[in-house]
What we know:
2 copies of one chain form a homodimer.
Chain A: E1 6-8, E2 31-35, E3 39-40, E4 46-47, E5 50-57, E6 67-71, E7 98-99, E8 104-105, E9 110-114, E10 129-130, E11 135-136, H1 146-160, E12 165-171, H2 173-184, E13 189-195, H3 203-217, H4 234-248, H5 251-257, H6 278-293, H7 296-308, H8 311-315, H9 318-323, E14 328-334, H10 342-354, E15 359-364, H11 372-375, H12 377-390
Parallel strand pairs in A: 1-15, 6-9, 6-12, 7-8, 12-13, 13-14, 14-15
Antiparallel strand pairs in A: 2-5, 3-4, 5-9, 10-11
Helix pairs in contact in A: 1-2, 3-4, 3-7, 4-6
Amino acid sequence: MNFQQQTLVQTRPPLFKVQPLQTGIDLVERQSVTWDEPLPLDSGASLAPFTLAYEAYGELNATRDNAILILHALSGDAHVAGRHHPSDRKLGWWDGLVGPGRAFDTDRYFVICSNVIGSCMGSTGPSSIDPDTGRPYGARLPVITIGDMVRAQARLLDHLGIERLHAVAGGSMGGFQALEWATAYPERVNGVIAIASSARSSPQTIAWNSIGRRAIMSDPRWRGGDYYDQETPFDGLALARMIGHVTYLSEPSLEAKCGRRMLHSADGPQFTLESEFQVESYLDYQGATFNERFDANAYLYITKAMDYWDLPGRYGSLEAAFARSQSSFLLLSFSGDWLYPPGESQAIAAALQRVNRPVSHITIQSEAGHDAFLLEHDVQGSMIEAFLDTL
Amino acid sequence: MNFQQQTLVQTRPPLFKVQPLQTGIDLVERQSVTWDEPLPLDSGASLAPFTLAYEAYGELNATRDNAILILHALSGDAHVAGRHHPSDRKLGWWDGLVGPGRAFDTDRYFVICSNVIGSCMGSTGPSSIDPDTGRPYGARLPVITIGDMVRAQARLLDHLGIERLHAVAGGSMGGFQALEWATAYPERVNGVIAIASSARSSPQTIAWNSIGRRAIMSDPRWRGGDYYDQETPFDGLALARMIGHVTYLSEPSLEAKCGRRMLHSADGPQFTLESEFQVESYLDYQGATFNERFDANAYLYITKAMDYWDLPGRYGSLEAAFARSQSSFLLLSFSGDWLYPPGESQAIAAALQRVNRPVSHITIQSEAGHDAFLLEHDVQGSMIEAFLDTL
């Protein structure tokens, strides 16, 4: 396959409804490692002890050179494929791409998906116990960065005995981490796959994240971050998620999902200030279910890490950042993604070309918005599979 | 001037900073009329008494056929041009377009700018006294629609002795009202100018409005809308405004205004959860100043009126809606407006053409986002002036 700059036009219907998938993965367990040795942070603080959660699929080969590290987005976790329990109705978040015979082929590769520090999904984060006080850190956890997340993941690779990765891959904030791997640990990465991503958070991304944080912090139940033995800041986190959710979708996808349909359409408009359009109840639902699985403080910390993300700022220029890298790059973007539009990936591709690094950037035609990286399995899969073969 | 479908490329710098303007208007006073006769509302309820605030510029001629009605957007008011007090540092919101020799030439036209019912800017709205209780309506004000707003404005024209308008004009929600005028009172309007507008609120617009409303209504200080003698829901209204503000700007305009600059850039990142980027403090400021001039309940009512806006839904199709009209239309849109993108105006233009109504749709190249209708005076002005001459 020849990787050129191209736009693929999909002819099948947009994948708003993901086809029911048969997972190729047996039951999987979340694992974790805890280190007592402090993790130095970009802020100058350090974190000890710290724990990183991960999942692993397939087998590490004898030469230990078939490992692929997958990294997740803002609200994701290490559960990238399969089920934890036979009764799980939901599969891992990239199950369509990870498994025997799939793009990240677990018959060939040892696939690791690592959580991030700052998270509430099994790694050290604001809900973890602060050893100094015996109580949850809350807002006393040091602020972390994408660099800190990756520094912790490097410890995980050391622990697993993996010197060099066949590839590192992720979408959205997972792409930030993949690019951080390429520049902070250039000698440890053969191939980098960054999807629907960017080399820095734009002012608009910072704006949305900041409004979400303000919604959480102005919820009286936030209580300065110390709410773990009380009611949680449900409304604030719901608002933050609702804002985020709209930015993950495109106008056509909202039109297809909800249009202007009303909940009680047979009776016409209800002339009420309450939720009445389907799009309103859809967002209400997103806000409520997010509260069931995510911690408001973790939302603060992870969005802040995203806001600090600025490769060209840190190295002086994107070219200077990538001059350090020793990897080949596959960049995928989506035409309908207005949060991390194709131009962001294009800027990365242009910088990589200027420093003579091998790079392919493909923009996939999709109306699924930013969320396309979680939905458009077929086209992404074929690109990823071919790229991994070339490494 | 030949009005064709075209895109004008501006070569001057984007107008993020409006040039200091010399107003052409002497001091102006806000006026108002109150009616005892009930105003029937689309909900089936009615409103009595009700008041409408307006401002007027220029002179109504003897034949009473030189009146132009200007209508404002969500957070606007009747103060379209000039100053209320000699010490006012801020001019009316469209001062660059309204005055002697300007596009809406007050030497030739009698220009009226009407507020809307539901507002907090001098007309009957949720902060008005409910005659049944002697206390502010709060959330007990009946829900209103764009149709109700325009029905009240028709009373104002009756009061002023104006049978037929030379033109009706507005941007954003002001454009909704202009289109409502064209379809509800076709015999009263010669020309319709709808800028950065739409024939219906899209699901995405409803989503943003709905999240703003939820921010207000989940603020404990909202108190079901009865906060007028207490602290107001500052945080909720600030959040709603911040969300709205980001949707009014484009990514390039946020980049130009704030970029990724930090407040304490000399000291580098502060590694704090608090506001640190300029874009954050910029939005904080927008939220705070909006609280000084706007009522949270009015924000609920007006955004709800916007959400109900659906010309094709009400008449069966856009063509059916416009088959009623007897006006000529000028539609202006802006290339960088992602809230009401040019495609929305294009859909209106196409429907008007299908029912053989005279229409010109011009997309103006601008990076100022939706707010361009408040900023790009020069190009808009020349289009408007020429259109008014053709009527």
